[in-house]
Amino acid sequence: MKNMYSIDIEFSPVYECITSFYAYTHQKEVKSYFLEPAWREKTKQLLPASFAAELEDERWEVLHRIVLLAAQSPRKETVGEFLDWLGSLPAGEMYERMAPWVDSIPLNLGEIRDRSLRLLSSWNEHYFSRQEQAVLASLKESAGYLRERAKSIEAPFLIDEATNGIWIEPTESLKRVVLVPQAHCTPTTILDFYRGMATVLYPVIDGEIVKQNPVRQLLATTQCLADEKRLLILRTLAQKTCTLSELQAAVGLAKSTVHHHVTALRRAGLIRAHYADSTTVQGYSIRDAVFAKLPDMLSQYFYDGGSER
Fold this sequence. Notes:
The longest helix has 18 residues, at 109-126. The chain starts with 5 loop residues before the first strand and ends in a 5-residue tail after the last helix. The strands form two sheets. It has a four-stranded mixed beta sheet with strand order 1-3-5-4, with helices on both faces. Strands 2-6-7 form a three-stranded mixed beta sheet. Helix 1 packs antiparallel against helix 5 (63-72), helix 6 (79-87) packs antiparallel against helix 8 and helix 11 (214-225) packs across helix 15. It is α/β, with parallel strands linked by helices. The chain is 53% helix and 12% strand. Residues 210-309 form the HTH arsR-type domain.
């Protein structure tokens, strides 16, 4: 492999607070998450009316730069610690912390800091601080598990395992990857690249990285296989790694339709998406190990009385 990037596996409630805020504010995406159907409406009832009205505006991007600051924060044992640190951060220091990683930095960093602090403080007070500690315990357990796994497998394989099919190619410019468990946006992985750095917020479902739910995994696999076009995509990828355009030519469908199919296959963990220094997918390949485990998955469910959840 090329120069291998380092990998940091982090757990902090700060990341989940930010991720939950993102899940709420991005209404169009929330339906694709494994949240209960009424989650957003129930959450809205917890918020002051004026705050809920303000959050209907989706133009403010909470994740990208705030996650970058969280990754560098020396104080993030609790959300309150991080917010205190963020509030004390001069605009000049914010610029210095982001400048190595971000090409375009707004001039009004002080205003952005103040608004971020106000919104996240209110969100933490009215929603996140009331969440069950079991969710955070599950995330912490997953991070601990991956730290142990990191002792025996290389970084790209570890990321592929944690994300269920995202492969980050080693490149000359990529130096560091921060791998963080998150629950609110499952089954989505939230991936961002900066100059020489990437943040990967991978999905955890009831500690599923640690204790796999055989029924959920089996359903995701078999539902994806029950489609002729997806089977053709898988057969094509069994021969070689392909770009989206190459898959489109092989399957004979519109690119948007092929993209829909590969997204479903990727989320089910049947294929991997390859990334190199950007969030644009470079190509897709098959995950052979999943198919090798399929007979065992079926046997475990049929004969070992797999979970009914």
